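Section: Multi-chain targets

For targets with more than one molecule, the full set of components is provided together so that the structure can be written out for the assembly as a whole rather than chain by chain. Components appear in the order listed by the source. The example entry contains two components.
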Amino acid sequence: MKKFWHATVDAFETFLRVPGTVTLKGAHVRDAIDLKRIMIIAVISVVPAAIFGMWNVGYQHSLAIGDSSLAILANFWYGFLKVLPLYVVAYGVGLFIEFFSAGIRGEEVNEGYLMSGMLIPLIVPVNVPLWMLAVAVAFSVIFVKELFGGTGMNIWNPALVTRAFLFFSYPSSMSGSQCWISLKAGEEVVDGFTGATPLALDGASAQYGTGIWDYIIGIIPGSVGETSVIAILLGAAILIWTGVASWKIMLSSVAGALFVGGLANLGGVGIPFWEHLILGGFAFGTVFMATDPVTSAQTECGKWIYGFLVGAICVTVRLFNPGYAEGMMLAILLGNTFAPIIDHCVVGRAIARRNKAALKTA
Amino acid sequence: MSKNIVLKRGLDIPIEGSAELRLSKTITPDIVAIQPTDFKGFSPRLLVKEGDKVLCGSPVMSDKKNADILLASPVSGTVKEIVRGAKRKLLAVLVQPDAKQENLAAKVGRIEALTPEQIKETILRSGLWPFIVQRPYGIVADPAVQPKAIFVSAFATAPLAASPEFTLGDRIADIQAGINALAALTEGGVHLGLNADNYAGTPFHKLENAIIHTFKGRHPAGNVGVQISHICPILKGTTVWTISLYGLAAIGRYFNKGVYDVRRKIAVAGPMAIQPAYAETLPGAPMSSLAAWYGGNAEGLRIISGDVLSGKAVGPDGYLGFFDDTVTILKEGTDTELFGWAKPVRWGQFSTDHSYFSWLTPWRKYAMDTNLHGGPRAFVMNDAYYSKVLPMDIFPIYLVKACLAGDIDKMEKFGIYEVLPEDLALCEFIDPSKNHIQDMIAQGIDLMLKEMA
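Its structure, encoded as tokens over all components, is:
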């Protein structure tokens, strides 16, 4: 029992201060970097998107009831109160399971869930019932992460699996035009307002205020954190500057999306190809989810292929699957699934090339 | 044939306390340890007992698998103690030197007049054979195998490593003789790796009878394993030998003068070393003979025979390793740091990761200690994160995971023949998950040795 609690105590202790643990084997000095630092950078990079998302929840609410003033603080406060419970549930349920399994395994608590928990409330509709979120988080953390051995061992991104679980189990709460707009009891949507996302409307929204700049700034309905391309790019800048996430994956994902979107445009299908980049969850998924170092491709060459695949599949689903307006979640999960195979091929080719070169010099 | 090889990947760890290029002390140790544990793959059979008289160069141990391979005493004196550990494992033979040193008389012919077999016999008889290390696996070379080639690195890039120009620049004649002797033992020639940045400044570029390669890059460019992988990668079934410059100098002197002489200049360095400089001493000399550098009291200090990446923490009661020419003195990092990882800037800490800012001040040096800076985790960052400090054509984390899984096929595929733990030491240094990567590789190599035997 004492051992069980050790993980929890240790987690809080090492959270507050770097312990005086010394190296026992191998290199006597070590780099100051640890996973806590990497994770906190990743979490910080999501903060702009989270803050904007909270404001946008309020703003969309105001729009829905016929008030189009920006009212920064009031809208933020409204959204904050709506999103806070999502965070409480996502972190509460997820961290409880993390601490519990670390206790069972007798290992230190891994920081990986700090990032997953930061992302989960941002990729769900604001109206998702809390009990559903709790069930989804529990499923994802237990079956996709802990059963595989915890952070670093999982095959799929746990935050995305949470969303996928909700998406397939409770479709009525995850799409349509009601789930994205939070309303207080008794409030009525004004005439002419639709809460459907621009993607679901094929880009041709009748709603006022949905131009290109609205997409880029993010004042459109959507999952909490996914709407603002500007806020996401701020996060991308932090991730790329610190090297925490791979710019290669981001770039090749954009290339993949543009490639398929462009092909479709040539055939006269779909919205202008570049609009795919600023609509829906593409930007958010590309920057924060596809780049997860555990579930993305491991090798440099593999990252290019993996990213391209994610971008291309996302747009393919958007364009050619009438059932799903958005394809980013499935594209990344499919990319996660294929990442080991991509790496296997890349590594195999590299080894074959090396052996050939070595035989030549021999 | 000479070519310049540029290695883009690598890292020079900016640690304080590099040794000033001056010889500050010549040490005559009052006890010398001959430690069979310095030699991988050597199973010792004792040839002496306590109280025996030995001369400088007298054999004290032989290898159980090959009685021709000998370890010799570097001094003349009396065997004072035979140190054994758990399960009576032989740890060291301690020899107390006499006031007057005597050499074992040896008759050595001129190298040009000897056949390769005679050269081999001479080196074996001298007790200097264990200087020759076989790759793969980094074990004492098997005299029965003819190596494809012999590799020597003539520069050091490890943190705070001794400068070969300073320590061996005056022994060119011995090194040349060593090269001449070893060149007769292989058809592939002796390959010498030089630092491209200091090519003209080093006396070693004048050495003859060797194939010279120049390397430009940061650590581990000076590791002979990295150099081999760029000259001719080791494939399954091939064997190459490596030897240090010290080894060449000692073998050369044996041929030139007929004496066993392994005296060397070592760098005593590190952030906690008082006036870091060079000392002349013998391998097997006790660390206590270096007390002046750590102020006599080693409490709270880590004394390492070797460099900070791959050296062995021997403490004040330990001895200088046979292959080591550096002693590093560090502070034990037992202090806790409040909010360490959460501080935006950690001024005193070095990190290659851009989530700290020390990469913006590349000129700074750091008083590093032995703190782990985190806790053990599973591998989270991907292979590419680690390979940026490994200038070899291998995938480090794939190799490490194959070693962990004990999968011989995969280990072969991912290049276990090419590496020794020291080559992946930097991967261990930068690992945010704080895994024992060198230890994992060593386990893999041990498994290969067991399975392939």
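Chain B has a mean pLDDT of 92.
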